[in-house]
Amino acid sequence: MRATPYVRVDPEIVDRNIVAMQAFCDSRGIALRPHVKTHKSAEIAARQLAAGAVGLSVATVGEAEAFADQVAAAGKDLFLAYPVAADVPRVRAVAARVPLVVGVDSVEGVRRAADSGVAVSVEIDSGLARSGVAPQDAAALAEAARALGVPVRGVFTFPGHGYGVGRTRADAAADEARTLRAAAAGLRATGVDDVVLSGGCTPTAALTGAGVTELRPGVYVLMDAGQLALGAATYDQVALTVRATVVSDAVTGQVVLDAGAKLLGMDRPAFVDGHGLLPDYPRARIARIWEHHGVVEVPDGAARPRLGERVTVVPNHVCATVNLVDELVAGDEVWPVTARGRNT
Amino acid sequence: MRATPYVRVDPEIVDRNIVAMQAFCDSRGIALRPHVKTHKSAEIAARQLAAGAVGLSVATVGEAEAFADQVAAAGKDLFLAYPVAADVPRVRAVAARVPLVVGVDSVEGVRRAADSGVAVSVEIDSGLARSGVAPQDAAALAEAARALGVPVRGVFTFPGHGYGVGRTRADAAADEARTLRAAAAGLRATGVDDVVLSGGCTPTAALTGAGVTELRPGVYVLMDAGQLALGAATYDQVALTVRATVVSDAVTGQVVLDAGAKLLGMDRPAFVDGHGLLPDYPRARIARIWEHHGVVEVPDGAARPRLGERVTVVPNHVCATVNLVDELVAGDEVWPVTARGRNT
Asked: Which value does ipTM take for this structure?
């Protein structure tokens, strides 16, 4: 029996999630370009590409390096959806292996793309206030690209302000479509043809508005407690869980798991209660965690796991959990986390 | 020039921190048994052992495996300061390589220690309410150990409720000493000789009370923004920093770093403001982070880093940051994070 704690993936649920998102995108005529930052796994990427993804999205040059050959072999391409700061030689080397588009939100970024010999997509801010120019400023970057001979693939945004409850998801999806259309109109006015309007994250994907031509969700393939809390996932879509053991029941009213922050992560957005869910103990709550301790509080009279028992935990943020381990236990197989820690 | 983001360690500050903690412990007649969960690095462990540490503390069997030979070669021993749940064969295998003591807070744990052929230390709860029995219940576990022929090394606690401001640190240190003494008296009454009273974490170490014979601090060797906020460290003690680059200034009033949660972690205790400190920009604040974005807000009129500039960040919780990377850049050397991800 495998020692706990470890991370488990259900390949059948992974496949179902991939098929469902692909079918949704196909039905809407939207290209699906899954973000690999969630799973960082060549095994899962292969399934996404085989199911119909047009290519992959990556967050770092290191992730691009890890997936370049696989994507090239599939005859597809990579989008580095990030305002990459430096690394001209490395970007150039990746671009020699696979067609590559990088994100830009500054003239300086366009200059580096020119030096690297890659095409760009202009990042716009659709309401998150993180990176990206205002929609009306996208055309100026497209002009700068034209002046330097840099191809412009389109515009992109991350509607991450859709991570919230109530109307938030729908509002963010509407912001995404409206701002992408406005920015795309600016690009077309500068003479850019075939503008790709790329958006999408898991909570807003199903609500995607008119005009968006590409989606880049990541979490959908594995899901997590955050998506459950948002109403963007159901339990039967949760493909990744942590297996943990109760190691202590010495303090009254609680038990302690051997899964803590070094496996579950410390992500705890305002819309989530506790540090992960125990599906088999719905009234239990992971109230406090340290690096290797997860304290599970159980109300009087509710079922509680016993000392030595193995339990299943759904982490709050699956991208964080995957990036903490070197392998995913997938049925009888072990899938390496190919791009773990590729932050650079 | 090394691509950002990366983690940098100053070997001179590491050495100073090691010497200072060792000198403090020596002056008080306390044995120092540093916790490797913070640095997970054979290079740093070697310096701690050479400076006078009696051995090392580890949190998992995997960490014990990673450091067993190094500690044995130094003629010292390991303490697995955790109520380990299973892995009898693995614990037995480690114990064949190096003298090993494991934590217990249940009769079941004592039985496993008997099966594994290792000595135990009884964990007590000094106020954190995580794991560990009440001080008055330690003797019963010592009796259970005696009945099974398991040597008892002493009692231990983690005064983690010392992570707080105001009187908290001093109160937690007082709780630690009082409860360890009470539990040790119980052990002596059952006939255990030479009881080790093991406590200590970085915020309480300097306040350690009478009777404590061993300390297990971890963070002191690297320090972080959490310790600065607690008043348990000064800037000249911060040995680990993250180097990051400003990748975006497209949104007014802020800049974006390429260091996010996958490097800084998501630890944000109540006593810390923001997601890390920028020593060179004291009025700047890392207000929001995502996996690869750190949004730095700067008040009007204050100095702010420019697009493309490299900056230094002090992470909130150094143990989390170290566990996210495979190597530490230490001057001209690169130190591998020997036990990264050894959760099991």
From this structure: 0.97
